[in-house]
Amino acid sequence: MQDSAPEYTFLADSFELPPQQTRLQEFWNQLRKNPLALMGLVIFLVFLVIALTGRLLTFGTSPLLDPSMVRLQEKLRPPLSRPNMESLLPEEMPPMGAYLLGTDELGRDVFARMLQGAWVSLSVGFVAVGIAVFIGILLGGLAGYYGQNPIRVGEVFIAVLVIWLALGWGKLSTLILVVLALAAIAIAVVLVVQRDSDSRGLLHVFSAEFLSVDMVITGLIDIMLCFPSFFLILTVVALLPASIYNIMIVIGITSWMGAARFVRAEFLSLREQDFVAAARALGVSDWRIIFRHMVPNAIAPVLVSATIGIAGAILTEAGLSFLGFGVPPPDATWGNILSDGKNYLFDAPWLTFIPGIAILIVVLSFNLFGEGLRDILNPKLRERH
Predict the structure, then answer these.
(1) 7 domain residue, yes or no
(2) Domain harbouring 180, CATH code
(3) What CA–CA distance (Å, rounded) separates 145 from 166?
(4) What is the span of the domain harbouring residue 108?
(5) Where are the beta strands (DSSP E) in 67-207?
(6) Distance from the first to the final alpha carbon of the chain
(7) In 10 A of CB 131, how many CB atoms?
(8) Tell me: the pLDDT tens digits for 203-238?
(9) pLDDT at 357 (0 to 100)
(10) Half-sphere exposure of 170 (CA within 13 A, CB side)
(11) If we measure between CA atoms, which residue out of 312, 324, 317, 344 comes closest to residue 110?
């Protein structure tokens, strides 16, 4: 009689794996554990809706809410006050039937001006940070990936020429870039003479190795960080025509250093990883490796920096407008509303408190959301929660 083999029964239900979460679900679950970050996200979404509403209602040839309409007979009216029907024309009547946030010294509707200012703040913040992130990823990636590669003097000279052509033919840009080009050639001549005293030809000078890519970019970052950002922006904006586009560009090109340092640090670590070595062995181009494989893995700290950078850009724009160097009239911004209200601090305090509180809440929301992103995207900090 043969012994029968033992029978084993597997209970499939007892070995069921938990359902796998998508990245969005995992992000949401982590965000819910951080109430301050969640509150920042909610405030940001509300601000986004208000800004988009302001774009629809306060811009155009005949907007529904005209933030530039002057009603001198209605100046300095308090919030929730009703208009004087006898002194206003039908087209001057507020669409809401009341001045929800009062009027300023020219009788302009503060509610309409705050809506327009919300769109200006949102557009300046996102565009300026977009420019800064693009420059930061580009320069930081070059410094981290091509760090030890030398730059030749001829390449520096060509880059200076291209920048000059891009900036225009102005006297100031010409003077600055000529000085930089002469300094580069002088340094190259010294290097050539020290290396080989018999080779002093012009072609030898232009083919001489200047500095490494990493040294040039990190040196540029250190130089930019030496200047107080706000005063540098204030100086440049004062030299340019008053325009919202100039403000976006200036804030962007003076705020890229943080993103560049984050990307450089991540690239220095990633370029030694096995997947980068495998891509090189397969003959993948450097630019494809950088933008297809390395940038997605280095983007987490940049997102945190960009979120907090939006708050900084909004605050910078408000400061410039408050000092009279921001967006020119008749467009309204929170900064120039605040500037107009400082002369009526006791007679019309809402002109100061309303834009000031709006700036405080929006900037705080971006900072809170940025801190929450940092905790979520950093595995070491995530384990503490």
Answers:
(1) no
(2) 1.10.3720.10
(3) 26
(4) 45-84+96-382
(5) 150-152
(6) 63
(7) 20
(8) 554 555 556 778 878 888 888 888 888 887 888 777
(9) 93
(10) 9
(11) 344
